[in-house]
Amino acid sequence: xxxxxxxxxxxxxxxxxxxxxxxxxxxxxxxxxxxxxxxxxxxxxxxxxxxxxxxxxxxxxxxxxxxxxxxxxxxxxxxxxxxxxxxxxxxxxxxxxxxxxxxxxxxxxxxxxxxxxxx
Amino acid sequence: xxxxxxxxxxxxxxxxxxxxxxxxxxxxxxxxxxxxxxxxxxxxxxxxxxxxxxxxxxxxxxxxxxxxxxxxxxxxxxxxxxxxxxxxxxxxxxxxxxxxxxxxxxxxxxxxxxxxxxxxxxxxxxxxxxxxxxxxxxxxxxxxxxxxxxxxxxxxxxx
Lengths: 119, 159
Prior knowledge:
The structure holds 2 protein chains of 2 kinds.
Chain A: H1 4-26, H2 31-47, H3 51-58, H4 60-63, H5 67-84, H6 86-92, H7 98-114
Chain B: H1 6-13, H2 17-29, H3 35-63, H4 72-88, H5 91-99, H6 101-104, H7 107-120, H8 126-133, H9 138-158
């Protein structure tokens, strides 16, 4: 356990959010457009092999922002595609993001059953 | 299909001097977002969520004896659980008002968008409300993520 990882995670994760906040405030893009852009950027960086070095450097600073969702989708598709060709793109797509998406669906459904909307 | 009157089209596109003055006036009156404050808050909250993610990564690596990559699944599931729960209590959206992108960009924001949509549409029923409206915001992130990842995969498979 390297304590420097906390510092690097804080700075890189924070900087990605700063970039998004600047787009929120200084452009006419809606937050939804900015988030979609981050996901697409993550997938593109995965294709260029640039996202993994960032994860290695910053740990959760790179895996916590939503751009890592695009990275994980593309990495799953790429890994299967390298073994099975084009069909692998279909079968590998959700290989790495399965935990996140499944958790988000289950917990969102459970919370909606238990709680009522506030205000 | 009837042709559109080109003269009319041009007139609707170019504002008259009066309209221009009005637009300028509106822009002057519109409150400017406190960019510096927003950026600092986004940095602090985004960094904080990342630190929590890093702590959970170390925790799962130690307890379940996983590699950093393998720990990714349990880590996202855990912070998604926390975000959904805080959304249920109405806390997440209150903090997110100040944190801006700091709580929108981390995966917790993805979970928050799904949980808050599920809650908001609960009154329309479990099937037509919660079930189908859950993805009203998260859907476009998934669709564009999958589509761009497909392009990346296809390009690499064909090269």
